[in-house]
Amino acid sequence: MSSHAERHTAPTPRRSWSRRAALAVTAAGAVLGLLTTAPTATAAAPHRSAAPAVAAPDIPLANVKAHLSQLQSIATANGGNRAHGRAGYRASIDYIKGKLDAAGYTTTLQQFTAGGATGWNLIADWPGGDPQQVLMAGAHLDSVTSGPGINDNGSGSSAVLETALAVAREGLQPTKHLRFGWWGAEELGLLGSKYYVNNLPSTERAKVAGYLNFDMIGSPNPGYFVYDDDPQIESVFKNYFASLNVPTEIETEGDGRSDHAPFKNVGIPVGGLFTGADYTKTSAQAQKWGGTAGTSFDRCYHSSCDTTANINDTALDRNSDAVAHAVWTLSAGSTPPSGNVYENAADLPVPDAGAAVTSSVTVSGRTGNAPDALKVSVDIKHTWRGDLVIDLLAPDGSSYRLKNSSGNDSADNVLATYTVNASSETANGTWKLRVQDVAAQDTGYLDSWKLTF
């Protein structure tokens, strides 16, 4: 897990002169055909926490630990770590890729450059499933330079790998398309996952129904923490641990510090699990979960002692099974989804200090009124977002203010999801997003927007 509170994607290059000096951001590499091109048709939003059509298998702890032993051996043979730009990281990628290739996955290495060194993400797609509804699960594979990174994050990487291998062993045929990812350079600021997300066209982002992140799930003095993000994903994990009579808490220690953040920042539903890093376990938590109060969840966090001896087997076993349960449950599609996504991904220039512009989506085939928690996801590239006023217009012309202008908000871009009580509006019809730039000197464009019912 990174030590940085990373919450924002890299800024978009300027399209015009700005009142602020731009930061030059460079990256090398290319997306190697990871995804197919999507039509701009509506796609079902597939993250409802439905009961799986087929129960997930038990994930053998011995298999997960065997992967950890391999990662330890790789680190030992390569200077004691598996860090970005080091031989140990590439050997780790090659180990996981070999397992997935042999199991029948389509694997792709995505190359990028960070800190003057080459990094890689590994993406693995399981054949079949609806390509318009993609469920992803992932973990970062790199360690810090000071240790082998077996809990952080060999534990998450190995559990995701063994879950992917279980999908192949079971011959799972999920309704949704399954994709797994292992990220590079997380410890340098989520750079691998940022690169992946930033290079996904908006039409491809719309296909990703949810991303599940697993970073540190075998801490030696463990807690059982669930990400407090998408409520449907969250409930899948909470319900699973409740079935084991294991209490959970909302994860706050690492919020925004791991690879779910780039996905969340572009409006993709996220969730995940965590067993704790350098925060101290309280007496109440020790009474709830066992372990030692007054010491950290992982005393070897980012240290040389983060070896195979730095793993709690019970926590690793429970969390590995929870990974599989979530993948089986959320990919099953055995009940209707929680809603539909209606998107317009056509670029629309926003005139500098000019008239308002509108972009439309047409909703059809629904009954009754819109929900009281209608989600409006907006992606606007702009060099001074404080200039922007954004409204949602219902089919009858009713206006809902999403964002006011602010002379003090000098940051780039609007990447946000707003919640609107639209329960008085008929669902079917043409909905519009209205954007106006009310001040001079900075420009931008509407990249995409979507409604989630």
Instruction: Please describe the biggest sheet, giving its number of strands, its sense, and whether it closes into a barrel.
Output: 8 strands, mixed
Uncertain spans: 4-52, 333-338
Q: What's the alpha carbon Rg, rounded to whole Å?
A: 22 Å
Helix fraction bin = 10-25%
Number of strands: 18
- Average pLDDT reading: 87
CATH classification class of the largest domain: Alpha Beta
Order the strands across the largest sheet as they lie in space: 2-3-5-4-6-9-7-8
Estimate what percentage of residues fall within beta strands: 25-35%
CATH architecture designation of the largest domain: 3-Layer(aba) Sandwich
Compute the separation of the termini in Å.
Answer: 34 Å
CATH topology (level 3) name of the largest domain: Aminopeptidase
Give the overall shape. Answer: globular
- Enumerate how many helices there are, as a single number: 9
Kindly report the name of the CATH homologous superfamily of the largest domain. Zn peptidases
Instruction: Give the helix/strand class.
Output: alpha+beta
Number of domains: 2
Order of helices and strands: EHHEEEHEHHEEHEHEHHEEEEEEEEE
